[in-house]
Amino acid sequence: MVRLILGIIVGFAAWSILWLGSDQVLMLASPDWYGVHQLEFEKAMFNRTDFIPDTAILVMHIFRAVIVSIMAGFLAAFIANENTRSTLILGVLLFAFGLLVQIAAWNYIPIWYHIIFLALLIPMTIAGGKMRTSPSPVV
Fold it and tell me: CA–CA distance from 128 to each of 13, 27, 71, 119, 135 (Å)?
């Protein structure tokens, strides 16, 4: 049970670190496109002003979410030494947290993005866990 809980916690932390870290890398790598977009989004949310999102960046966010969710699911399954409960619980936790974030950004981003982003969190986390197919013996 301790490994299960630890796997979920580490998976959630890894998802968060990978998401925020990759966001910062993209902002540094492309300050005139990606960086400006993200800063304008933050400014619009803070000031409650209009914002027009770049569709290419939204699609890139979805692909990043898929990759990060798979990695977090794999890590959770690896640490928990099982790939069913840990990834399902992690996926539900990511969905719940993601829903809160999406609600906060609801008026700034198109509905298709919210639906796709949230719909992929649980299955991609589970898919990542399934990549760790054979649990190692408990030590």
Answer: 15, 26, 6, 15, 14
Say how far apart CA 117 and CA 112 lie, in whole Å. 8
Convert the pLDDT of each residue in 31-50 to its tens digit: 999 999 999 999 999 999 99
For residue 103, give every residue at least 6 positions away whose Cβ sits within 8 Å of its Cβ, in sequence order, or none. Answer: none
Q: Where are the domains of the chain?
A: 2-130
CA distance 23 to 82: 30
Confidence of residue 55 (pLDDT cuts 50, 70, 90): very high
Helices of type H across 1-139: 2-29, 36-47, 55-80, 85-104, 111-130
With 0.85 as the threshold, say if the pTM is over it.
yes
Output the six-digit token pair for 27. 């902002």
- CA distance linking residue 94 with residue 24, whole number of Å: 20
